[in-house]
C-alpha cells in the first residue's frame, strides 16, 4: 500500500497545475492532502474528474483557509473529523481514516506565524495532537502524515543558523514538539530510510528558492514504531512533482 501526503496550497489552484497527472504519477492507494482551502462541496467539485478514490474532507469554518482531505481507493471502516476538542477543531486541520489494521491521520499543523505570534498556541496544539494519536494507538497502529510545519534538525533546513529561534518552523519549542512525537515511539519514516540524505519538501516562492533548492523538510510520514519495523518498505520525497510550494512525500507499507 502506498500512502502519499501533499500540501497542495489550494486544491482548486492545484487542479490548474496538472494535479490529476501528479496523482497518476504518485500511484497512491491513499493520498492525504493539506491546505485544501475549500469547503467540502468545493473539494468534491474540484476532484470530480479524479476516478477511483473515495474522498473525505475536513474544512475550516473560515472559508478559503486551511482544510485537509483523504483520498482512498479502499473505503475506510470509519472517518473521524478533528480531535474532538472544540478549541482546536474549527480550522479543519485533522482527519483520520480507520482501516482494518491501522489508523491513517492527515494533519496540517498550525504555523507559528509572523513574529511567532502563534507559537504559544502551537505549543498547546502539539501536546493535544500527540495525545490524540496516542489514544488512537491504544487500539491499532497509527500512520500520520502531513505538513507538520517544523524542520526537525539542521539537516532538514538549508539555512539553519539564520532561522533558528527566529523563523516559524525552526524554533526550539517547535523542534521540541517533534522530539516529543519521536520520543512517544513514532518513527520519522524518511529519516529512518535515508538517515543522511539532504532533501526538502517546501520552498518559499521568493527569490527562486526552489530552483536553488533553498528549502525545508516540513512534510512527514510518521508511523508507530512496531508498524515501521515490520511493514515499512520505502519512504520518498517527490521533488520532481510541482504544482505547489510543497512537494509530495510517501511511504510504501506491506
**What's the CATH C level?**
Alpha Beta
Structural class of the helices, strands and pairings? Answer: alpha+beta
Q: In angstroms, what is the radius of gyration?
A: 17 Å
Describe the biggest sheet? 6 strands, mixed
The CATH superfamily bears the name Endonuclease/exonuclease/phosphatase
Order of helices and strands: EHHEHEEEEEHEHHEHEHEEHEE
- How many individual domains? 1
Backbone shape:
globular
Pick out the low-confidence regions.
none
- End-to-end separation in angstroms reads 6 Å
In CATH, the architecture is 4-Layer Sandwich
Q: Could you report the average pLDDT, rounded to the nearest whole number?
A: 98
Work out the strand percent: 25-35%
CATH third-level topology: Deoxyribonuclease I, Chain A
Strand order of the largest sheet: 3-4-2-1-14-13
Query: Helix amount, in percent?
Result: 25-40%
Q: Count the helices. How many?
A: 9
β-strand number: 14
Report on this structure.
The chain has 254 residues and is of the alpha+beta class. The chain has a single domain, classed as 4-Layer Sandwich (Deoxyribonuclease I, Chain A), CATH 3.60.10. It has 9 helices and 14 strands. Strands 3-4-2-1-14-13 form a 6-stranded mixed sheet. Strand 7, helix 4 (119-137) and strand 8 (142-147) form a beta-alpha-beta unit. It is globular.
Amino acid at each position: 500500500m502506498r500512502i502519499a501526503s501533499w500540501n497542495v496550497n489550494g486544491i482548486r489552484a492545484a487542479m490548474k497545475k496538472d494535479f490529476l497527472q501528479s496523482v497518476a504519477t504518485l500511484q497512491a492507494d491513499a493520498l492525504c492532502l493539506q491546505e485544501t482551502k475549500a469547503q467540502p462541496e468545493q473539494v468534491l467539485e474540484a476532484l470530480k474528474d479524479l476516478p477511483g478514490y473515495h474522498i473525505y474532507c475536513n474544512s475550516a469554518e473560515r472559508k478559503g483557509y486551511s482544510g485537509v482531505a483523504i483520498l482512498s481507493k479502499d473505503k475506510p471502516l470509519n472517518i473521524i473529523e478533528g480531535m474532538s476538542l472544540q478549541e482546536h477543531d474549527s480550522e479543519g486541520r485533522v482527519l483520520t481514516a480507520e482501516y482494518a489494521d491501522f489508523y491513517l491521520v492527515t494533519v496540517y499543523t498550525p504555523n507559528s506565524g509572523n513574529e511567532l505570534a502563534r507559537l504559544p498556541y502551537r505549543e498547546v496544539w502539539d501536546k493535544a495532537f500527540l495525545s490524540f494519536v496516542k489514544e488512537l494507538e491504544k487500539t491499532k497502529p497509527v500512520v500520520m502524515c502531513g505538513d507538520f510545519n517544523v524542520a526537525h534538525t539542521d539537516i532538514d533546513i538549508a539555512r539553519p543558523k539564520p532561522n533558528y529561534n527566529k523563523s516559524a518552523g525552526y524554533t526550539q519549542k517547535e523542534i521540541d514538539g517533534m522530539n516529543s512525537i519521536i520520543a512517544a515511539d513514532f518513527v520519522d519514516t524518511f529519516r529512518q530510510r535515508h538517515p543522511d540524505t539532504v532533501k526538502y519538501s517546501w520552498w518559499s516562492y521568493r527569490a527562486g528558492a526552489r530552483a536553488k533548492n533553498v528549502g525545508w523538510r516540513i512534510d512527514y510520514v510518521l508511523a508507530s514504531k512496531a508498524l515501521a519495523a515490520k511493514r515499512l518498505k520505502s519512504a520518498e520525497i517527490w521533488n520532481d512533482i510541482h504544482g505547489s510550494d510543497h512537494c509530495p512525500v510517501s511511504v510504501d507499507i506491506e
